[in-house]
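Example record used in the benchmark description.
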Amino acid sequence: MPLSLHAAYVPSALQMLGTARHLVESAEKWCQEQDCAHGEIIGARIVEDMLPFSYQVKSVAEHTQGAIEGVRAGVYSPDLNPPPESFDDLRTKLSGAVDTLDALSEADMESFMGQPMRFEFKGNRMDFTAEEFLLSFSQPNFYFHCATAYGILRMKGAKVGKRDFLGKVRIKT
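Model output (C-alpha coordinates):
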Protein backbone atom coordinates (compact mmCIF):
# COMPACT_ATOMS: atom_id res chain seq x y z
CA MET A 1 0.00 0.00 0.00
CA PRO A 2 1.46 3.37 -0.96
CA LEU A 3 2.00 5.99 1.71
CA SER A 4 -0.76 8.60 1.71
CA LEU A 5 -0.05 12.31 1.74
CA HIS A 6 -1.80 12.46 5.10
CA ALA A 7 0.51 9.78 6.56
CA ALA A 8 3.60 11.45 5.07
CA TYR A 9 2.80 14.92 6.38
CA VAL A 10 0.28 15.23 9.20
CA PRO A 11 1.83 12.96 11.90
CA SER A 12 5.25 14.60 11.47
CA ALA A 13 3.72 18.07 11.56
CA LEU A 14 1.82 17.21 14.74
CA GLN A 15 4.99 15.75 16.27
CA MET A 16 6.92 18.98 15.66
CA LEU A 17 4.01 21.11 16.88
CA GLY A 18 4.14 19.07 20.09
CA THR A 19 7.89 19.57 20.26
CA ALA A 20 7.49 23.33 19.77
CA ARG A 21 4.89 23.39 22.55
CA HIS A 22 7.28 21.49 24.83
CA LEU A 23 10.07 23.94 23.96
CA VAL A 24 7.84 26.86 24.93
CA GLU A 25 7.10 25.11 28.24
CA SER A 26 10.82 24.47 28.75
CA ALA A 27 11.62 28.11 27.96
CA GLU A 28 9.09 29.36 30.48
CA LYS A 29 10.41 26.95 33.13
CA TRP A 30 13.99 28.09 32.42
CA CYS A 31 12.97 31.73 32.89
CA GLN A 32 11.38 30.87 36.24
CA GLU A 33 14.44 28.91 37.37
CA GLN A 34 16.80 31.69 36.29
CA ASP A 35 14.53 34.42 37.69
CA CYS A 36 14.69 36.30 34.41
CA ALA A 37 12.20 38.08 32.22
CA HIS A 38 10.44 36.04 29.54
CA GLY A 39 11.91 38.37 26.95
CA GLU A 40 15.30 36.80 27.70
CA ILE A 41 14.14 33.79 25.67
CA ILE A 42 11.33 35.26 23.56
CA GLY A 43 13.81 37.61 21.87
CA ALA A 44 16.88 35.35 21.98
CA ARG A 45 18.78 34.63 18.77
CA ILE A 46 21.67 32.33 18.01
CA VAL A 47 23.35 35.07 15.99
CA GLU A 48 22.31 38.66 15.42
CA ASP A 49 21.12 38.22 11.84
CA MET A 50 18.81 35.31 12.76
CA LEU A 51 15.23 35.70 13.85
CA PRO A 52 14.37 35.20 17.55
CA PHE A 53 12.92 32.24 19.44
CA SER A 54 9.38 33.62 19.15
CA TYR A 55 9.68 33.80 15.36
CA GLN A 56 11.03 30.25 15.19
CA VAL A 57 8.06 28.90 17.18
CA LYS A 58 5.59 30.99 15.15
CA SER A 59 7.12 29.54 11.99
CA VAL A 60 6.48 25.97 13.10
CA ALA A 61 2.78 26.89 13.16
CA GLU A 62 3.05 28.83 9.90
CA HIS A 63 4.64 25.95 8.01
CA THR A 64 1.99 23.52 9.26
CA GLN A 65 -1.35 25.31 9.63
CA GLY A 66 -0.39 28.10 7.24
CA ALA A 67 0.83 25.60 4.66
CA ILE A 68 -2.48 23.70 4.75
CA GLU A 69 -4.42 26.96 4.45
CA GLY A 70 -2.14 27.89 1.54
CA VAL A 71 -2.76 24.59 -0.22
CA ARG A 72 -6.50 25.13 0.15
CA ALA A 73 -6.13 28.60 -1.41
CA GLY A 74 -3.57 27.53 -4.02
CA VAL A 75 -1.04 30.12 -2.84
CA TYR A 76 1.06 30.56 0.27
CA SER A 77 2.80 33.73 1.41
CA PRO A 78 4.43 33.79 4.84
CA ASP A 79 2.71 35.79 7.56
CA LEU A 80 4.93 38.82 8.09
CA ASN A 81 3.17 40.02 11.23
CA PRO A 82 5.40 40.20 14.30
CA PRO A 83 5.62 36.95 16.25
CA PRO A 84 3.76 36.52 19.54
CA GLU A 85 5.47 38.25 22.44
CA SER A 86 4.46 35.93 25.29
CA PHE A 87 4.62 32.24 26.07
CA ASP A 88 0.82 32.12 26.31
CA ASP A 89 0.45 33.68 22.86
CA LEU A 90 2.98 31.21 21.42
CA ARG A 91 1.00 28.33 22.92
CA THR A 92 -2.19 29.75 21.40
CA LYS A 93 -0.55 29.97 17.98
CA LEU A 94 0.63 26.35 18.22
CA SER A 95 -2.77 25.15 19.49
CA GLY A 96 -4.50 26.67 16.47
CA ALA A 97 -2.13 24.78 14.19
CA VAL A 98 -2.75 21.51 16.04
CA ASP A 99 -6.51 22.03 15.74
CA THR A 100 -6.19 22.59 11.98
CA LEU A 101 -4.14 19.44 11.47
CA ASP A 102 -6.32 17.34 13.78
CA ALA A 103 -9.33 18.30 11.65
CA LEU A 104 -7.73 17.02 8.42
CA SER A 105 -8.92 13.68 7.18
CA GLU A 106 -7.01 11.41 4.86
CA ALA A 107 -9.62 12.22 2.19
CA ASP A 108 -8.96 15.95 2.66
CA MET A 109 -5.24 15.47 2.16
CA GLU A 110 -5.61 13.13 -0.80
CA SER A 111 -7.91 15.66 -2.49
CA PHE A 112 -4.95 18.07 -2.58
CA MET A 113 -2.84 15.71 -4.72
CA GLY A 114 -1.83 17.26 -8.02
CA GLN A 115 -3.39 20.65 -7.28
CA PRO A 116 -1.32 23.62 -8.38
CA MET A 117 0.33 25.45 -5.52
CA ARG A 118 2.33 28.66 -5.57
CA PHE A 119 4.69 30.12 -2.98
CA GLU A 120 5.09 33.90 -3.12
CA PHE A 121 7.47 35.99 -1.05
CA LYS A 122 8.91 39.45 -1.70
CA GLY A 123 8.42 39.23 -5.44
CA ASN A 124 9.72 35.67 -5.71
CA ARG A 125 7.48 32.89 -6.92
CA MET A 126 7.84 29.12 -6.86
CA ASP A 127 5.29 26.83 -8.47
CA PHE A 128 4.58 23.39 -6.99
CA THR A 129 1.94 20.74 -6.81
CA ALA A 130 0.31 20.62 -3.38
CA GLU A 131 2.20 17.47 -2.39
CA GLU A 132 5.55 18.86 -3.60
CA PHE A 133 4.96 22.03 -1.61
CA LEU A 134 4.03 20.19 1.57
CA LEU A 135 6.80 17.59 1.42
CA SER A 136 9.69 19.54 -0.11
CA PHE A 137 9.08 23.03 1.25
CA SER A 138 6.71 23.10 4.22
CA GLN A 139 8.04 19.99 5.97
CA PRO A 140 11.73 20.97 5.87
CA ASN A 141 10.75 24.43 7.09
CA PHE A 142 8.84 23.25 10.15
CA TYR A 143 11.74 20.96 11.08
CA PHE A 144 14.25 23.80 10.56
CA HIS A 145 12.36 26.29 12.72
CA CYS A 146 11.74 23.75 15.46
CA ALA A 147 15.42 22.78 15.48
CA THR A 148 16.41 26.45 15.60
CA ALA A 149 14.10 27.10 18.58
CA TYR A 150 15.69 24.07 20.27
CA GLY A 151 19.17 25.46 19.48
CA ILE A 152 18.30 28.82 21.02
CA LEU A 153 17.22 27.14 24.24
CA ARG A 154 20.41 25.07 24.36
CA MET A 155 22.47 28.18 23.73
CA LYS A 156 20.77 29.94 26.65
CA GLY A 157 21.52 26.98 28.93
CA ALA A 158 18.07 25.39 29.18
CA LYS A 159 18.17 21.72 30.10
CA VAL A 160 16.78 20.25 26.89
CA GLY A 161 18.15 17.31 24.97
CA LYS A 162 17.50 15.16 21.95
CA ARG A 163 14.41 13.55 23.48
CA ASP A 164 12.95 17.01 24.00
CA PHE A 165 13.39 17.67 20.29
CA LEU A 166 12.07 14.31 19.11
CA GLY A 167 8.86 14.71 21.06
CA LYS A 168 6.26 11.98 20.88
CA VAL A 169 7.61 9.39 18.46
CA ARG A 170 5.24 6.98 16.78
CA ILE A 171 6.17 3.53 18.01
CA LYS A 172 4.68 0.20 17.10
CA THR A 173 1.94 -0.75 19.55
